[in-house]
Amino acid sequence: MKKLFTPLFCLAILTATAQTTALKKLVSIKADALNDKVIAWRRDFHEHPELGNREVRTSDIIAKHLRSLGIEVQTGVATTGVVGVLKGDLPGPVVALRADMDGLPVTERVNLPFASKVKTQYNGQEVGVMHACGHDSHMAILMAVAEVLSSMKKDLHGTVKFIFQPAEEGLPAGEKGGAEEMVKQGVMENPKVDVIFGLHINSQTEAGKITYKPGGTMAGVSDLQITVKGRSAHGAYPWSSIDPVVVSAQIITGLQSIVSRNVNVTENPAVVTIGVLNGGTRFNIIPESVKMQGTIRYFTPADEKLITENVKRIAIKTAEAYGAQAEVLIPYSNKYPVTFNDVALTAKMLPTLQATAGEENVILRPPVTGAEDFSFYQQKAPGIFFFLGGMPKGGNALTAPSHHTPDFYLDESGFTLGVKALCNLTLDYMAGKGK
User: Fold this and answer.
1) pTM of this structure
2) Average pLDDT, the chain
3) Is 169 a catalytic residue?
4) I need a surface site. Which of 65, 88, 265, 312 has the fewest CB within 10 A?
5) Per the residue annotation, which of 212, 298, 336, 429 is the catalytic one?
6) Cβ of 29: how many Cβ atoms within 10 Å?
């Protein structure tokens, strides 16, 4: 039996569409008016960064702001996380929006009046702390989204859950946190989340543009630790040693063949990187052991298994060939799934992004070998994670300082687009466009 679209039913649809259109016009006005506020919040967070699970000052500012808007607030989630719940006056779905809060152990080199001068201890070393990945902008944008949407409470068809998450960048071994811990503590329940949206600023995409990819958009990741044990000796008598430094060099070289010779890179990209190499205390002493740490990136379970097995085999067998021993831990302390944008949801919400930014400014991109623990939320509800431009207009993506570096820099003119995009995704999903 076919459904009959009565004049009354069609009128209801037209009325709902008109209401959503009016709200989105109001979003644009309010977001523009909040621009200076967003920049001020971002600069304050940038000047006072805090590492994962230590975002005490940061979370306090966010919680106070949400409470000032009349939003229900829960603090101390997964150590320092903040969750706000805005219940619209009208029935509808639960939409979650997420921002991450932590900085990185990076010493800032950018000459800004609000540059970070913070120093702290990380893994036993004194380090600088910097928002070298843009989480400061994510928080400021979501705080503005909360302000805009809370002012529309009487017209909201559903509930908005604002998730301010600690420790996205991972934690020292032995600590728990991040999205995985927030999910374990029930952030996607009570009320149960129907859909989740998130964004990430990108310093190599021009401000005013949005990039996206359906399906696997960011890699799954496991960190790794390899400990090579040899025999110590005086540096002048290397024949008395089993040199773990030389063995480690051979292992690192061997690991580079995994992606180039074992992974079918025509189907999916993959990465094996060693980023830390520690061994020895003096120039003329061959140490007893060397420790290295790194990361592997993949987009399929099959590639994860292949890479993991090959890292272990190359490390252990290479060490054995030199008379040494290698112990391999994968993961060592952190593992994130692939960040997977629900394909159907992405297709249905793409027009919202195009209408917000302009169709020519919304660009399909290839997969990114960076990783995001936003993926843990997407295991509980369909989600979209997209990228917001933060490079000065006319800049060169190949030379713009990348994320996680001392020279990381953002053009603040693109923040307002992020506010509008998250607000409009929420309103359109609540209006039924995402279902």
Assistant:
1) 0.90
2) 95
3) no
4) 265
5) 336
6) 10
The one-letter amino acid code at 208 reads G
The answer to whether 72 is a known catalytic residue is: no
Place of tokens 């209801």: 12
Residue tagged active-site, from 47, 288, 327, 412: 412
Comparing CA positions, the residue from 415, 397, 369 lying closest to residue 265 is 369
Comparing C-alpha atoms, which of 199, 216, 235 is closest to residue 389? Answer: 199
| Rounded CA separation 383/326 (Å) | 40
Reference 248, options 286, 285, 277, 280; nearest CA is: 277
Would you list the DSSP string of 363-418?
Answer: EE---BSS--TTHHHHTTS-EEEEEEEEEPTT--TTTSPPTTSTT----GGGHHHH
When mean pLDDT is compared across 1-15, 254-268, 378-392, the lowest value belongs to 1-15
Residue 370: name the closest of 132, 147, 144, 160 by CA: 132
What's the pLDDT score for residue 3? 55
DSSP string, 209-249: -EEE-SEEEE-EEEEEEEEEE-B-EETT-GGGSB-HHHHHH
CA–CA gap between residue 190 and residue 154 (Å, rounded): 21
